[in-house]
Design a protein that fits this description.
CATH architecture: Sandwich
Shape: globular
CATH class: Mainly Beta
Oligomer: single chain
Radius of gyration: 16 Å
Distance between the termini: 14 Å
Number of helices: 0
CATH topology: Immunoglobulin-like
Largest sheet: 5 strands, mixed
Helix content: under 10%
Order of helices and strands: EEEEEEE
Strand content: 25-35%
Number of strands: 7
Structural class: mainly beta
Number of domains: 1
């Protein structure tokens, strides 16, 4: 295993996500407070290795925001994927493991950007 090799002997049961809440929230009452429902949850890791976990870049609750556009760029800034109405279907096929940058634009004008790592 070299410095660019990712070996997962015991794959994690989770991925790190960026959760964006819809409104004010009382952190002590997250499970009870309806205002703490997350508007969207954006993962930052996908593992498209046919194990049925984290196979694609799935943004939870994106269906609440139809016609949301997504652009994904590689580390050199080249667009490797774009969609004017993203359907949670990008799996990084034909792209190398590594870090990518996304920009998500919701129909309501909210914009989110961050990194996405592909690990196989």
């Amino acid at each position: 295993a070299g410095p660019n090799t990712h070996q997962l002997n015991n794959p994690p049961d989770f991925v790190i996500v960026r959760a964006i809440k819809a409104g004010p929230c009382n952190p002590g009452k997250v499970s009870e407070d309806a205002s703490c429902d997350f508007d969207i949850i954006i993962p930052n890791v996908i593992t498209p290795n046919d194990d049925m976990y984290n196979e694609a870049f799935v943004i939870q609750y994106l269906e609440r925001h139809p016609n949301s556009s997504l652009e994904i760029r590689n580390r050199w800034g080249k667009v490797v994927y774009e969609s004017g109405d993203y359907k949670n279907d990008w799996d990084g096929e034909d792209h190398a493991d590594g870090v990518y940058f996304y920009e998500l634009n919701l129909q309501n004008g909210e914009n989110f950007s961050g990194t996405l790592t592909i690990i196989r």
